[in-house]
């Protein structure tokens, strides 16, 4: 899901807010790409396919 779709689905948050949070989480987890971040979330059981 793209950031725009996530922000719209959440409703109250702007696209910039969602993108900023994703970026900070990615930095803290030391993931170099969105794909790495998604893989991490799947491996940790945070999302299912």
Number of extended strands: 0
Question: Globular, elongated, flat, extended or rod-shaped: what is the shape?
Answer: globular
Gyration radius from CA atoms, angstroms:
11 Å
- Domain count: the total is 1
Structural notes for this entry:
It is a single chain. The protein is mainly alpha-helical and 49 residues long. It has one domain (3-43). Helices cover 65% and strands 0% of the residues. The protein has 3 helices and no strands. The chain has helices at 3-10, 15-28, 34-43. The longest helix has 14 residues, at 15-28. The two termini are 12 Å apart. The mean pLDDT is 84.
Would you kindly provide a brief summary of this structure?
The chain contains three helices and no strands. With 49 residues, the protein is mainly α.
Features:
49 residues, 65% helix
Write the layout of secondary structure elements.
Elements: H1 3-10, H2 15-28, H3 34-43
Helix pairs in contact: 1-2
